[in-house]
Amino acid sequence: MRRAAITGVGYYLPEDRMTNAELETLVDTSNEWIISRTGIHERRILRDPEKATSYMATRAARNLLEKKNISPDEIDLIIVGTVTPDMVFPATACLVQAELGATNAWGFDLSAACSGFLYALSTGAQFITSGTYKKVLVIGADKMSAIIDYTDRTTCILFGDGAGAVLLEPDDSGVGIVDSLLQMDGTKPDLLCMLAGGSRRPASHETVDARQHYVYQEGRSVFKYAVKGMADAAASVMERNGLTGDDVAYLVPHQANLRIIDATANRMEIDTDKVMLNISRYGNTTAATIPLCLSDWEHKLRTGDNLILAAFGGGFTWGATYVKWAYDGSQYEIPEHLRSEMAHS
Ligand code: UT7
């Protein structure tokens, strides 16, 4: 049986860090509050105003292709999960295709907020299992700092910038994407959204004055839906594939809030040492959180490891995906930024 296997991962993180101490100078908050309510210590920020999401997405893809020694012209399809495209159009995928030199690829952007990577992964996998394509790049990338209101303490402490990429290729040895449960409830778009800048409320002096070009979130409500959505989806996927917590090598959760992740892990009866966590370093990078986790943990992953990926985001969109890992990650070194992280600590 042909499956779509993740055969490589890559990442890009901006060098500049935004610490909780810096946020204390911008809004009425504290390091203690941020850590205890979210688990976040710092985020990476792409401060150069000339650089946008495609810059990070291209570098994540290039990192992957260089590691795998694959030429960009071998790529058939590029899907970019993002809510911070460089422009409304053309798609960020077009800009990535050009900068990467993926001359034989077509592609598109996929908008599902924090579930963008899971939605894109599932979409890309269809082109592999159908036999249509051999190499599909799935990228999650967001420059959240471009749409964050750094006077709003309830949102600005949460988000960071980054990009992660995976390569999907066909495999018939039993590894790959086994199952996916993706869900949506569009009845509450106002709880987590960016009000203006679309066709409903195009940019105007009024929308700018009303600060409607920024992320708006009713945190407490979203929190409740996120805990239930992520935990339910992960538990369903485990149950219908006959998996218990012991069978799972790693939970790979969207990194929105440490407390949401803990609740999901509890529900799955998974020990904390089997939960991929990097929220303390990067905050919520929206579509990039899951591929950034895979990148950070790649060197620890082994062929046949059972991973449960789970996400929840604006829309609402949410879901969980069961992946049987396809290769021995020990052939790859610990990413450069993690080595320097260890040196710092
Ligand atoms: O990734 C997409 C999905 N998004 C999420 O999953 C995010 C879900 N929501 C959350 O993670 C949490 O709701 C937040 C981290 C956004 C907020 O945490 P919370 O524990 O739900 O806090 P809260 O909104 O209930 O606020 C508690 C108090 C409030 O003060 P009062 O009304 O009790 O006096 C807030 O005004 O904390 C206050 N507060 C802050 N205090 C210091 C809110 N933000 C801050 C802040 N610093 N940055």
Assign the structural class, choosing from mainly alpha, mainly beta, alpha/beta, alpha+beta, or little secondary structure.
alpha/beta
Q: How is the largest sheet built, in terms of strand order?
A: 1-7-6-4-5
Multimer state:
single chain
- CATH domain class name of the largest domain: Alpha Beta
Biggest pleated-sheet summary: 5 strands, mixed
What is the CATH topology of the largest domain? Peroxisomal Thiolase, Chain A, domain 1
Main attributes of the structure:
single chain; 345 residues; alpha/beta; Peroxisomal Thiolase, Chain A, domain 1; 2 domains; five-stranded mixed β-sheet; four-stranded mixed β-sheet; 12 helices; 34% helix; globular; binds oxa(dethia)-CoA
Structural description of this entry:
By secondary structure, this protein is an alpha/beta fold. The protein folds into 2 domains: 3-174, Thiolase/Chalcone synthase (Peroxisomal Thiolase, Chain A, domain 1, 3-Layer(aba) Sandwich), CATH 3.40.47.10; 177-336, 3-Layer(aba) Sandwich (Peroxisomal Thiolase, Chain A, domain 1), CATH 3.40.47. The protein is 34% helix and 23% strand. It has helices spanning 20-26, 31-38, 53-68, 92-100, 116-129, 153-156, 205-209, 219-240, 258-268, 279-282, 289-297, 336-344, and strands at residues 3-12, 17-19, 42-44, 77-81, 106-110, 136-143, 161-171, 176-184, 192-193, 216-217, 250-253, 306-313, 317-324. A 5-stranded mixed sheet has the order 1-7-6-4-5, with helices on both faces. The protein has a 4-stranded mixed sheet with strand order 8-13-12-11, with helices on both faces. The chain has a two-stranded antiparallel ribbon with strand order 2-3. β4, α4 (92-100) and β5 (106-110) form a beta-alpha-beta unit. α3 (53-68) crosses α4 (92-100) and α8 runs parallel beside α9 (258-268). The mean pLDDT is 96. Oxa(dethia)-CoA is lined by residues 29, 33, 37-38, 114, 153-154, 157, 219-220, 222-223, 226, 256-257, 260, 284, 312-313. Oxa(dethia)-CoA binds at residues 29, 33, 37-38, 114, 153-154, 157, 219-220, 222-223, 226, 256-257, 260, 284, 312-313.
